[in-house]
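Collaborator request, handled under Task 6.
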Amino acid sequence: MRLTAEQRKEQIVRLATSMFAKNGYDGLTIRMLALACGISEPALYKYFPSKQAIYREVLQNLKKQLTIDKLESKISKSEDIKEILFTLARHIIDIYGSKPEFTRLLLFCSLENHDLSGEVFNIIRGPFVRILSEKLKKLKKSGKIREIDPEITARCFVGMVMDCSLGMDLWKNKQGRTFTSEKIIRNNIGIYVRGLKIP
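Structure tokens returned to the collaborator:
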């Protein structure tokens, strides 16, 4: 059955997501992607003018899957730092646990340091840092948490949660003891909450 133009475009993005996550940006060629799609390179270029354009489309597609609006809605209603951190951590682990492409693309872009690395960070990790940083600023201003740098704290917290997710995906059964995401979250959030609360 012949695919419509829209179906073909979706197929290219779907396969490109998986192949970029497996091979990195530098390791995936248009030829490889065209072969996987069952079309020629010139045919693929009818849908996307360059590998960079395909990669950008992959990132935009992944951005939609982060469900940032839903997360912001939940967090905006709370003034409880523990609840905020739990909500954010669970959201990140649920997303990254179900879509290992996020973690792998982030790792590859860090290692390859290609032109789109900044965009990868801004799309895949940046929204979580922004949401938490903004919330911490408000809580600090209202005197509900101690004097901290909200952006540094947000970056460190999001990094810790993402590293947990990374460990569960990439290093599964290679680190000796295996911990559930819930156990890791409960252990570490308690430390963060005690550090942020005013004594």
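The cover message to the collaborator said: "The chain is about 75% helix and 0% strand. The CA atoms of residues 34 and 44 lie 6 Å apart. Please let us know whether this matches your experimental observations."
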